User: What shape does this take?
Amino acid sequence: MATALTLGLRAQQPQANNWVEQEVLVQLKPGFTTDVFQPLATALDTAEFQRIGGVRGTYLLRSKSKSTQALLTALTGHPALYYVEPNHTGLRPDSSVSADKIAPTDTYWPNQWDMRLISADAAWPYGQGASNVAIAIIDQGVRVTHEDLAPNIWSSPELLFDIIINGWLEGVYCPVGTNGINVTQFYQNGYNYCSQSDLTADGHGTGAAGVAGAVGNNGKGIAGTSWASKIVPLSVPSLFDNNTMDTASATDALEFAVMINATTNTNIRVINASWGCLYQNSIYLTLYCPVSSTLQNELKRVGGYGILVVASAGNEGPNNNIDSTGNPPVRIPTSYADPAYYMPGILSVAATTLDTSLTTESLAPYSNTGPNSVALAAPGGDASGYAVEMSTSNASDSGSSAYTNYNGTSAAAPHVAGAAAVLAAQCGSYTGMLGLKQTLVNNVDTLSFLSGKVASGGRLNLYKALKSCMLQNYGVSPAGGSGTSQVFRYTFTDATPNFPPPPPPEPAPPVGWQDLSVMKAFIGPSMIYQANVCYFYLQMTGASSGTVSLVNDAGTGNVGYITIPGSGSVNNSQCTLNATGSSVSGSGSTVTLNLATVFNTTHFSGYQIVYMDATDQNSNDSGWQSMGTWVINVSTSPSMTFTPAPAPAGLSQAFSLQVSDSHGYSDVTGIQFLVSPMTVNAGNSCYVKYDAGGNLLYLVSDDNTSSGTGIVPGTSGATLSNSQCSVNVANAMAPSGSNSYTLTVPVTFFPGLEGNNVVFAAAQGALAGNTQWLPVSVWKK
Assistant: This one.
C-alpha cells in the first residue's frame, strides 16, 4: 500500500493502511440497488450512500462507527457486488516546482527552450489551438485571473446539471458563467463548488495550465503549447493540502469532465493529470491504479467518451520502470482481445531535460520510465541545473502576473495535453481519442536514450504530429459497392499551407501534392490482417506519372509494380492491378489515382474494407483510416441491405438494415449492427441488438458485459444510451412482411466515436443460419 496520507479537509485522521477509514467503494451488479444493504444497515452502522463518478452502480458507503476492514469483511463476496474496496488515498501530485517568483514586464519566450525543443514554433504557423476545444486541468487549482490564462479560462455557456443523460453525478447544479469546479467541496459538502477554481500556495495546477494553454503572442509572460484552447479547472485543493487525494475525489473529478461536455456544449478533448498513484509504499504509477477498480472503471468511461487523459509518469527515476506495477500498455489497440483495449485513453509522459549549456538533451534524472506503459517523453526540465522551464505562477504577492520555474514530469505532461488540443482543433473529426493518441505517439523525435525507456522511443514533436494529421483529406470513390472489377478513384491531399519560400540559400520545402511521399491503400476484411489482401502503394514520379507497387500475399514485400501511364499488370492471389485503364495526376494539394483493379474470386471474396494512409517527405504519417467497403462475389443467408451507403457522415443518422430470408420473415431471430473504428470491437462501441422474436431493442454496455433491458421499438419517449451513442427507441421501427425485416434505428453519436468508423452488421435465421459480422459501410463523424 501507499504511504499514509490523507485529505486535508477530511474529518478522519491519517491511517497506517492509507485509506479513508470507515469508507468503502462498491459497484452494484445490474438489477440491484442500494436497497440490498437495508438488511445490513444496523450491522454496518451506515451513515450514507454517495454516488461516485459516472460508472453505473458505483457508490461510496460511509459507516458511522465500523472500520474499513470491518466493512470489507462484511461485504466481500456479496452477491449483489462486482467488488468492494477501500477508498484509497495516495493519489498525489508529481512535480519539483521551484518557489522562485518572477514578476515579468516582457515576454519570456527567449527562455522557453522547451517549446523550441518540441518544434512548437514551427507548428504554430499551421495551428495554435482554438476556443472550441478545451483542456481540463485536474489539479490543486488554477489562478483563473492570471493575465496569461484569463482570456482562455472556460466560462460555462449553459447550465450544468445532472438530469440530461443517465449516469451523471447526482445533485449537481451550476449556473451559466461557472469558471471551474471545486471537486473537493462538491465531494465533501455538496455546495459552493461552482465557482472560480481555488487558489493554492505553490501553483501546481496554475503551472500545468500555463504550459498547456497560456495565451501566446500577446506580449505577456509565456506562450503555452496551445494558445487558444479553453482551460477548464477541476480543482481538488486537497491534492495540495496533504499532497494526496482519495479515489472518490479523483473519480468525481474525471466524471465532471464527461458531464460538462454532455450538458453544456463544451468540447473537452483532453484532461491533464499531472499526478498519479502511489503503490506498495514507494512505487509510482501513472494515474492507473491497480488497487482501485473504481478509478479504472472511470478511466475507461472517460476514454469511451472520446477524452484523452494525459498523465505524468512520475518522479521516482532514473531506474524506476513502472511496467512491472500493473500499468496498462500504451499502444493503439488492434482488437477487442488486445490488452491495450481496456485502457486506450491514457497517455503517460516521461520527462527529458537539457544540459547546462542547453545543447544536449537527455532523460531527466528524476523521470520514471516504462517501455510498455509510458508512451513518450516531453520536456520536463531540471530545477537543479540551468534547464529550468517557465510557466504561470500563483504567487500570492503578484498572482495575476507572476511566473515561476516549473519542472518535473508534471511539466512534461501538459506539453502533450496542449499538443493534443492543437491537433484536435486543427485536424477536425480525424482526430478522435485514438487518433490523437496515435498521431502523438507515431510522430515523435526518435532519441537513442529513450529506446527501451518509453514505448515510442521518442520525445514529443508538435510540428511532426500536426503535419501528419493534416494529411487527413483523402478518399475513395466509389466508397461502397460490389463487383469483381472496378476502377477505383483514390484521392490523397496534403493540407499544408503554401507559405512563401524562405530566403536564399535555404531551399523551399515541398508543398502540396509534391510533399506527399508514399500513398497506400489496401482492401481487406480487417486492419489487423495485412496479409492475403489487395495492398498497394503509390509513389509519384511526375505531375502525371507514378509507380504502383503491389504487396505480396504474406505482406512482407512486393511482387512487382506497374508504371502509370503504361501497360502491363501486376498480381498477387487477391487482385490484379492493370496499368491500362489507370491514370494518376498531381494538382494543387491533391494526388488522384484511378486504378483499374480485378479481384481473384478464387482466393478473395466476401465483405471487404478499403483503408488508406499517406506519408510526406518528412516521414509524417497520417495513420490508416477506413474509407469505404466493397463486396466481392458473395451471397449471405439471410441477405442484408444497409442504408445509408456508402460513407455517410454526421453526428446523427437513422440507420436502416433490411434482412431478407428465403424461409420467410418469421425465420429471422436477430439483427445487430455496431459502429467502431477499424475492427469488430464489441466493447466501447455503438452496438445495437434487435430480438425479432421478442420485438425488443437493446444497446450493449461499454464493457460488452450487458445488453441491459430491452425496449419495444416505438415506445414513447424511450431512449437507450452508453458512452458512445444514444438510440432514439421512440422513433425506431422494425416492420416485417413476406420474406424480410427492415430495422430502422435513429442514432446520435457522442465524441468517443469521432473519426472514420466501420459499420458492421449481422443477422440470424433459425433455418437460414448466421451471416457473421460483415462490414457494410463506413461512418464519418
User: Anything to note?
Assistant: The radius of gyration is 27 Å.
